[in-house]
Design goal:
By secondary structure, the chain is α+β, with helices and mostly antiparallel strands. The protein folds into 2 domains: about 80 residues; about 270 residues, Endonuclease/exonuclease/phosphatase (Deoxyribonuclease I, Chain A), CATH 3.60.10. It is about 40% helix and about 25% strand. The chain contains 11 helices and 14 strands. The strands form 3 sheets. It has a 6-stranded mixed β-sheet. The longest helix has about 35 residues. The chain starts with a helix and ends in a 6-residue tail after the last strand.
Length: about 375
């Protein structure tokens, strides 16, 4: 018969080796999680690696939660490594998964609904496209008071889409800022409230991305709405095909295809990070000079743990964090990799918000987001 003590010692030794491996992985996970926090504060133009850490924040957080549970079950002091790392960035967690109860707006005035949607040119370049009608039907069903559309497609000859939107919302208040000759693509704002002023914020480093603002008259108050489309990453079919392989079990991480594809993706991500870090400075300065309370809508092409997001968040509140629930992912790359890159921000000193929703429609590569606002009672403190 085998020596029971010898078997016990072998198992104990194997378990110790496993703990050593987990300990080293745990240290790496802690360091990367802490670096992901810094992605909010340090411009990617200075240190792009931090931005890469930020994009995998949800996975780093999950890994550290695992290690907290793993070491806690063994009553090891190593539990504090991940626990402290998580607590340092505890305020970032609601950006991933907010915990909000149902909120009812009371003692407020001028309740209105704001919807933001990247309509992906209504799918005009896709074969057998029926998305356009579906998008119009969706907007007709939602009946927002203010809608900000990105990648809005306009037929230059008859302006059919403009007329349909006006008919759907029963309004002629609109502001379009679009580029092109025969077929124009850009930003659109439609409002059931009068537009008393408008303007464009062009980005000098991009011909396709921009922002616009509109000043709206809401009874006795004037508010400013920003519609923003920050720098895109411009993934092509080759990039999407490459990312689709990440879930395959036979993926060869050392292959030439893997190395070439990874370098190409990282290069595009870096370019986008740097462009957006400059574009957001322009927006922040404009927001600071606004004479009216501000609501910001748009496709940021960036995650909630990024430098771009944080610059806006320093000035305004994220409506998803304030009144949303669950995971708020608005973009799915190859239907596998979820990201939240579409936002509605607001001035919490002037507005209350309720019922933030990420709709699960599949008519565009983005999901629409909407929320309800009310203007705070001026007698409230």
């Amino acid at each position: 018969m085998p020596d029971k003590r010898k078997i016990y010692d072998m198992k104990k030794h194997s378990f110790s080796l496993l703990n050593i491996v987990f300990y080293l992985i745990n240290l790496i996970a802690c360091i990367l999680l802490l670096l992901s926090y810094l992605a909010n504060f340090i411009s990617p133009d200075s240190f792009t690696f931090l931005a890469y850490c930020g994009i995998i924040y949800p996975y780093l957080l999950s890994a550290n939660v695992f290690f907290v549970l793993y070491w806690a079950l063994q009553r090891k002091r190593y539990v504090f490594y991940s626990l402290i790392s998580i607590l340092i960035g505890f305020t970032f967690i609601p950006r991933l998964y907010p915990f909000n109860n149902k909120q009812e707006l009371t003692n407020d005035t001028a309740l209105f609904k704001v919807l933001s949607y990247n309509v992906h040119v209504f799918g005009m370049y896709e074969p057998d496209n029926h998305n356009k009608d579906s998008i119009f039907d969706y907007i007709a069903m939602q009946q927002p008071d203010i809608i900000c559309l990105q990648e809005y497609f306009q037929d230059h000859k008859n302006h059919l889409h403009d007329k349909v939107m006006q008919n759907i919302l029963q309004t002629k208040h609109q502001y379009l800022e679009i580029d092109g000759i025969n077929q124009k693509i850009g930003l659109a704002v439609f409002s059931k409230y009068p537009i008393i002023n408008q303007g464009i914020l062009a980005f000098t480093d991009s011909s396709n991305n921009k922002a616009v603002f509109t000043d709206l008259c809401l009874k006795n108050d004037t508010i400013r709405i920003y519609n923003i489309h920050f720098q895109s990453i411009y993934f092509d079919k080759e990039d999407y095909l490459f990312t689709s392989k990440f879930t395959k079990t036979d993926l060869d991480l050392k292959s030439e295809e893997m190395q070439t594809g990874s370098k190409r993706i990282l290069k595009k991500l870096k370019k986008g990070y740097i462009y957006r870090s400059e574009q957001v400075k322009h927006i922040v300065n404009h927001i600071k000079s606004s004479p009216y309370p501000v609501v910001v809508c748009g496709d940021f092409n960036d995650i909630p743990w990024s430098y771009t997001y944080h610059q806006i968040h320093k000035l305004l509140s994220d409506a998803f964090v304030s009144s949303g629930k669950g995971f708020g992912n608005t973009l799915f790359i190859n239907n596998k990799f979820p990201f939240r890159i579409d936002y509605i921000f607001y001035d919490k000193t002037f507005f209350n918000t309720s019922g933030f929703t990420v709709d699960k429609t599949a008519f565009s590569d983005h999901r629409p987001v909407y929320t309800y606002f009310s203007i705070k009672d001026k007698n409230q403190e």
